[in-house]
Amino acid sequence: MAKKSKFQCPIGMHDILPEEQAYYQKIYDVVSNIADFYGFGKIDTPIVEQEELFSKGIGLATDIVNKEMYILKTKGGDSLALRPEWTAPLVRAYIENGMQSLPQPVKLWYFGPCYRYERPQAGRYRQFWQFGFETFGESSPVIDAQIVQIFYNVLQELKLKNLITEVNSIGDSNCRPYYKKLLTSYFRNRVASLCVDCKRRLKENVLRILDCQEEKCQSIKSDAPQILDHLCEECHKHFKDVLEFLDEIGIPYELNPYLVRGLDYYTKTVFEIFSNKKEDKSLEEDSKRVALVGGGRYDKLVKVLGGRETPACGAAAGIERIKDLMKSQEIKLPKEVLAQVFLAQLGGLAKRRSLKILEIFRKAKIKVAESFGRDSLKAQLNRADRFGIKYTLIFGQKEALEGVIIIRDMQNGNQETVKLDKVVEEIKQRLKK
Ligand code: HAM
């Protein structure tokens, strides 16, 4: 076991080691290809923003703002927060960079770390990476369906199985206040049977009771009034259209009237994509449904954060959760291209010139392994053997003076001396065979 070091990674955060990078790279490649196809432009924003952007944008009563933000005071006295998500920063960037004056919709995507001071557990980290897609300036339900489709496509392209897409509508400022009143009076009459958290939610954000996972709240929830029965005409039509578009493009989905999301900015459509691990007996009940993607429409947020009223819709996915699922579903990644050539050097002059030879091969796009720290030829040939190398180039004092190099075929041990300026061509020919 590795010795415990004096310093450790902060709790809930991880180093991304070289062997893990291939997953991030694969996810990045799939996401950026899809973004390119659908016409999304990539955006990066600072990792910190004014704290108020999130408290105003996500909502003061949400867990993210209430309990989970990393806040720091700068020397100048500003209160900044590590971004817990990307939507509020994107809205800030959209307004600040004058994107409201561009032809709409403006479509943006992102890929990077977020920070939430959560209780760490499997699939729940304090530093985690998200990628996301956001569309600004378009109110049509076709956009909602397209956002779901884009995420579904990414997960399919990554070959993930057992995906479940859940959708709901949580109405807008026309119909939601009345529904919340109904819900409040329903739960108030049953407050004694609610869990401690839901008693608090009843005061702060009654909708959140609907996605409580506590056993004791389940039966009370199941008889609660449902939002879909109380949508105004506009929200009802919008939701019906979204579902029709999803049917048309053949995305399987389930209606979940309890899906409300943990951020306050949503209007109308909300959705999540889960991986279903029902069969996995080793998992706790609440880790059998891991949300990979979450999002929806947020038509009021641009205005709330100081812009003109602008409809918007988007979602984000958790990259570690996707990576963990790729591993557990044994999804293969493209194999790393291994070097087929090894450069062994002997003596001071040869070692100095070897750095140049390596550069010639790099420019010719031929991967060459070396072990410049070792001086004995035997040790270097052993290394080449261990890498499964086809050809070793041997470059000693004599070769360096004569401008030649030895090519050794590692399978049969045959050696041939060639001119240094012909070696790349010669190796290319041999590798072709
Ligand atoms: P969210 O549901 O909070 O939504 O996060 C989106 C995804 O990020 C989750 O489905 C999950 O995969 C991942 N995630 C969240 N928290 C953690 C964590 N502590 N550890 C690991 N993964 C995590 C948002 O962030 C919204 N901004 C999505 C959105 C974009 N809505 C509209 N546009």
From TrEMBL:
Aminoacyl-transfer RNA synthetases class-II family profile domain: residues covered: 23-334
A Pfam match: tRNA-synt_His
Subcellular localization: Cytoplasm
Entry keywords, A to Z: Aminoacyl-tRNA synthetase, ATP-binding, Cytoplasm, Ligase, Nucleotide-binding, Protein biosynthesis
Residues at which L-histidine binds: 85-87, 116, 130, 134, 261, 265-266
GO MF: ATP binding; histidine-tRNA ligase activity
Superkingdom of origin organism: Bacteria
Cellular component, GO annotation: cytoplasm
CDD domains referenced in this protein's UniProt entry, alphabetically: HisRS-like_core, HisRS_anticodon
Predominant location category: cytoplasm
GO BP terms, alphabetized: histidyl-tRNA aminoacylation
PROSITE patterns from the UniProt entry: AA_TRNA_LIGASE_II
EC number(s) per entry: 6.1.1.21
Reactions the enzyme catalyzes: tRNA(His) + L-histidine + ATP = L-histidyl-tRNA(His) + AMP + diphosphate + H(+)
Subunit field text: Homodimer.
Family matches, as PANTHER family: HISTIDINE--TRNA LIGASE, MITOCHONDRIAL-RELATED, HISTIDYL-TRNA SYNTHETASE
Protein name (record): Histidine--tRNA ligase
